[in-house]
Amino acid sequence: MSDRYILAVDQGQEGIRLDVWLARQSKGMSRSRIQQLIRAGLVTVNAQTVKESHKIKPGEQIEVNIPPPHPVELKAEQIPLNILFEDDFLLVIDKPSGLVVHPAPGHDAGTLVNAVLYHCPRLEGIGGELRPGIVHRLDKDTSGVILVAKTEAALSALADQFKQREISKEYLAIVLGALSPASGQIRTMIGRHATDRKKMTAVPRKGRPAITIYDTMEKLGNFSLVRLKPETGRTHQLRVHLAHVHHPVIGDEKYGRRSSWNLPVEVKRQMLHAHKIIFRHPGTGQKMEFSAPMPEDMERLLDYLQKMQKAEGRM
User: Fold this and answer.
1) How buried is residue 156: exposed, middle or buried, by Cβ count under 10 Å (0-12/13-18/19+)?
2) What average pLDDT does the structure give for the chain?
3) Among 100-104, 114-118, 123-127, which stretch is predicted with the lowest mean pLDDT?
4) Sheet strands (E) in the chain
5) How far apart are CA 31 and CA 156, in angstroms?
6) Contacts with 13 (C-beta within 8 Å, 6 or more apart), sequence order
7) pLDDT value for 71
8) From CA 146, how far away is CA 140, in angstroms rounded?
9) Which of 116, 128, 123 is nearest to 92 (CA)?
């Protein structure tokens, strides 16, 4: 069944756009979703349909009808999930490498979204559709912590935290060489590559500011284990930044060169892991922190490099 709300405009609120006013009154519904409802004739003012630009007046009675969500063309699939936390608002998942987050051309099944739809068959509608809310993304071959909103209110609240840079994320990476200085900041513009539209670049014709804080945790011969904290959230930001300063992530064939790794152990993907995330709970406002342990393939490579370092030290 649909939800029906009747609201009254109070004194002192005149002159505000209807969509803006409703966004302020609602608990987590996005302005774009409200505009969809208005355009569909599901919002009336004194029983009359109006445009989203309608300027409200004191005494007006506004009725909002929210239809039940309709399913999208996504198939629920029984894919195992390593769930670190779950409640009525969100899921915190430790995503394995190799798992695509969201369906796209060439990946319409076997994704994190398909798995979440199976795990949460009673998801609340997001944007009028029955689907999970992907708050942020991880590349297919990047492992680690990812947030998935289960309600539109949670999605809106978490997206706002990302927009205001209130969410802190920390990554671990094994990179080529030793960064100098060992700790610091990488600040560039990032945009689409001029000739390869599937790649990003730190020297674009047009781009957006990107900032990454880094700290070398361990030097291991011609490799390093580094901690990365993105201050911005550009596509492929960490991989692009590290390649830009000539210390690409090991295993990153898009931004690095396999010939430069010179490793006797097999590396099947980029050695990049979303280790930690800190945010405010979208319902309670409580500070929450979750971390995912380094996956086995990175642990294996790190152990090998540490043993090689010790062996060289004894020579």
Assistant:
1) buried
2) 90
3) 123-127
4) 3-8, 43-45, 48-49, 61-66, 70-71, 83-86, 90-95, 125-126, 129-130, 133-134, 143-149, 168-176, 183-192, 200-201, 208-220, 223-230, 272-280, 287-291
5) 10
6) 21, 56, 58
7) 65
8) 12
9) 116
Verdict on whether the full-model pTM lies above 0.85: no
In whole angstroms, give the CA distance from residue 118 to residue 112. 10
CA distance 96 to 101: 10
Give catalytic status of residue 252 as yes or no. Answer: no
Distance in angstroms (rounded) separating the CA atoms of residues 48 and 5: 15
Torsion angle, CA of 28/75/101/27, rounded to 10 degrees?
0
Instruction: Please name which of 223, 187, 225 lies closest in space to residue 207, comparing C-alpha atoms.
Output: 187
Q: Which of 139, 141, 252, 297 is catalytic?
A: 139
Alpha helix (H) residue ranges in 17-124: 18-25, 31-39, 112-119
Structural domains of the chain in order of their starting residue, each with its CATH number? 3-66 (3.10.290.10), 70-163 (3.30.2350.10), 168-314 (3.30.2350.10)
Integer Cα distance of 310 and 315 in angstroms: 9
